[in-house]
Amino acid sequence: MADISHVTVIGSGTMGSQIGMVAALSGFRTTVVDLSEDALAAAEKQLRSRMERDVEKGRRTQGDVDAAFDRLDFTTDQAAAVAETDIVIEAAVENIEIKRSILAELDAQAPEGAILATNSSNIVSSRLADATNRPEKVCNMHFFNPVLVMKACEIVGHEGTSEETLAAVDTLARAMGRDVIRVRREIPGFVANRLLNALRTEALKLYEEGYASFEDIDTAARSALRHPMGPFELMDLVGIDVAYLIRKAEYEQTGDESSLPAAAMERMYNTGNYGKKTGKGWYEYDDQGRKGRPNPDF
Ligand code: 3HC
Known about the structure:
The chain has helices at 14-25, 37-56, 62-71, 78-82, 96-109, 163-175, 192-208, 214-224, 231-238, 240-254, 263-270; strands at 6-10, 29-33, 72-75, 87-90, 115-118, 138-143, 152-157, 179-183, 283-285, 291-294. It is an alpha/beta fold. The chain has two domains: 6-183, Rossmann fold; 191-294, N-(1-d-carboxylethyl)-l-norvaline Dehydrogenase, domain 2 (Orthogonal Bundle), CATH 1.10.1040.10. An eight-stranded mixed β-sheet has the order 3-2-1-4-5-6-7-8, sandwiched between helices. A two-stranded antiparallel sheet has the order 9-10. The N and C termini lie far apart (52 Å). Bound molecules: 3-hydroxybutanoyl-coenzyme A. 3-hydroxybutanoyl-coenzyme A (3HC) is lined by residues 50, 53, 57, 121, 144-146, 148-150, 193, 196, 228-229, 234, 238, 242.
């Protein structure tokens, strides 16, 4: 397989936009695709303000940032974006039917040799590969939020993924400055999210059964365990919608009731409180995304 030089990311949400930024900063020609021009414009604005801040703080040079934006395109034209791509990283919504239909489209549009990777942590690639005619080139490449800060990347093939594909994705991830975790066999949630979920499940249980407030549980994680943020703060950062859909996707795969979202998470999801991105989740957030008081409804 030729070296990867062009990366396409499908989805300009929190994950997709930052995956694209990191690829461009790492020297790859990169295209971020979304259905909505507005979503792309919002993503570009966010990234520009993040990069401005990094330059102000001396974390990057203006030259590196300008060069990265020169390599980074935003478009709604998926077919044109992938016509000459080497890899597509799908970072759309956590819904298997949507992911299968995107992969089938990409299979028809991208060059024969292109790898089709998904950023999903819960929908394993064996459930997507047969939507394409290139199952050996399909795998999971799972990043963490915020991608600009969190260096980890889990790489997971299904039984039919070729070693050549996994090696190429591994090389790309390392070139993007990632610490690679190779997951040897598929399991929903892979490694990091399974560790995180164990903590989150216990946190939700303690809260729902009235042992402590969610703020105090967050304080315990931060102040007793030195986690950078508590499990409820982290749900707000990742998105309650994402956390909820991950639980649903896991339940579809395991059929195990313990995989279902906790009642409090369901209530939060059903009321449209998705966390930082909607201004309200477990906590309230201002326009700048700064955390305010705990959500008085919970
Ligand atoms: N995007 C990009 N960069 C960000 C950011 C964001 N959303 N939030 C913070 N940063 C960067 C900024 O450079 C910021 O510095 P600045 O404000 O001076 O520019 C720097 O991080 C420090 O941020 P803060 O001072 O606001 O706060 P912290 O020191 O607490 O750091 C954090 C923020 C990096 C998010 C840290 O709290 C943390 O590591 N939290 C845990 C995150 C985590 O566990 N992520 C994994 C989630 S699981 C997942 O993603 C899997 C998926 O499948 C759901």
